[in-house]
Amino acid sequence: MDVNGKRDKRVAQGEVTRTALIDAARALFGEQGYVDTSTDEVVARAGVTKGALYHHFRGKEDLFRAVLEEVQREVSDQAVAEFLGPDSWEALVRGCDLWVRAHLDASVRRIVMQDARAVLGADEVRAIENRYGVVALRGALRKAMHAGVLERQPLRPLALLLMGALSEGCFYIADEPDPAAAQLEVAALVAQMLSAFRIGATDSHTG
Questions:
Q1: Which of 49, 130, 149, 150 could form a disulfide bond with 88, CB atoms 3.0-4.6 angstroms apart?
Q2: pLDDT score of 86 more than 70
Q3: What is the pTM of this model?
Q4: Alpha-carbon dihedral of residues 89, 93, 94, 98, nearest 10 degrees?
Q5: What is the pLDDT confidence band of residue 205, given thresholds at 50, 70 and 90?
Q6: What's residue 122's pLDDT?
């Protein structure tokens, strides 16, 4: 095997190890929380050495950051798939609803809603949320405006305001004894809020 081939193999093996660490940490952080998860547990579940963990991450906090980014990216990708639907209004409403519903998952709720700000701080979590969520929302809002469904508005502040509403909705759901019922309340309110910018809006928020 030539030098480039050996390098490619090492890179591939490194990616496998990094993925195994993130997958193991995500499962443990989701099950028992950041504080109650040790790096020893993570490497044991991943089947790698502690040296491998510190080769890819600076420590547990850095590993948590990678897990949070993966969770946010997955939620964003799912929402984008909805945002791309042919009916720009329904796509926007359904994509926002999917974003909120994703946080009904207990592990997502623990990682994103309970631990993230305590571990990384509000500013860093907001930056990650903006990188994945706000960018996706801007695209959906732009699409709806170009389709003549929404009034033309400044995209960045509108996307930031909407993401703030969705995030607060997720916190509300996380604190309620009946999350499923709370999610329906939030979905209806988000649709009603968006209707304020809808061109030719009727009493129906989703039709």
A1: 149
A2: yes
A3: 0.85
A4: 150
A5: very low
A6: 93
User: What separation in angstroms does the CA of 4 have from each of 7, 8, 10, 12, 14?
Assistant: 5, 6, 10, 12, 15
DSSP codes joined into one string, the chain: --HHHHHHHHHHHHHHHHHHHHHHHHHHHHHH-STT--HHHHHHHHTS-HHHHHHH-SSHHHHHHHHHHHHHHHHHHHHHHHHTSSSHHHHHHHHHHHHHHHTTSHHHIIIIIIIHHHHH-HHHHHHHHIIIIIHHHHHHHHHHHHTTSB----HHHHHHHHHHHHHHHHHHHHHSS-HHHHHHHHHHHHHHHHHTTBTT--S-S--
Give me the pLDDT at residue 12, please: 72
Angle made by CA atoms 102, 180, 94, in degrees to the nearest 5: 50
Nearest to 150 by CA among 91, 106, 108, 100: 91
- In angstroms and rounded to an integer, the radius of gyration of the C-alpha atoms of the chain is 20
Residue-averaged pLDDT of the chain:
90
User: Is residue 81 within 8 Å of residue 136, measured between CB atoms?
Assistant: no
Q: Is the pLDDT of residue 9 over 70?
A: no
